[in-house]
Amino acid sequence: MKRMTRLVQGFTVLETERAVTTQRLARQDEHGFSVVELVISVLILLILSAIALPSLAETLRSYRLAGDARALASQLSLAKMRAAAEFSQSQLSFNFANGTYQLQVFDKGANAFVTEGGAVQYLSSGVTFGFGAITTPAGTQPAPITDTPQIVLNSRGIPVNGGTDAIYLSNNGRTCAVTVSASGQISAWRYTGAVWQRL
Predict the structure, then answer these.
(1) Domain 64-198 fold
(2) What's the pTM value of the predicted model, to 2 decimals?
């Protein structure tokens, strides 16, 4: 019985020593990645980045352009509200050379348009006023296509020139527009290459 107990204990010790030796060997093999594996991983990341960057840049340009068109539409909506609140006229005035615009409300006491809040708004990077080579006007604007330097709204939110107001924005060959109809409806548009679609 003693001999069997020693044999069993010896077997247990032998198994324990084998397990410890296996763990030590396993730890010696776990030193991280090799330089070749790291270089291959970095190269794969660089290739994927090179493929993705052009489409990402184009997507950002498109979002900037659509965002500016929506911002102009909301500023025109605000101009309608300011004109109604003051029972006067308001206008969104554009500076084509600097890529800026500002909301102005007519002050009856000063008999002039006054900039609302004194803030000048800037177009996003890369976005400019203009329509490029497009010849088809957006919305209700009659041909020929033109940019309106000021969109003036009366106290009822109706454009004073009869609803032919439009402002065009472009960015790297893409074009958007914001129009005001004769009834005062403000719409933002995107040119698809053949027709104008609402944003």
Answers:
(1) minor pseudopilin epsh fold (3.55.40)
(2) 0.71
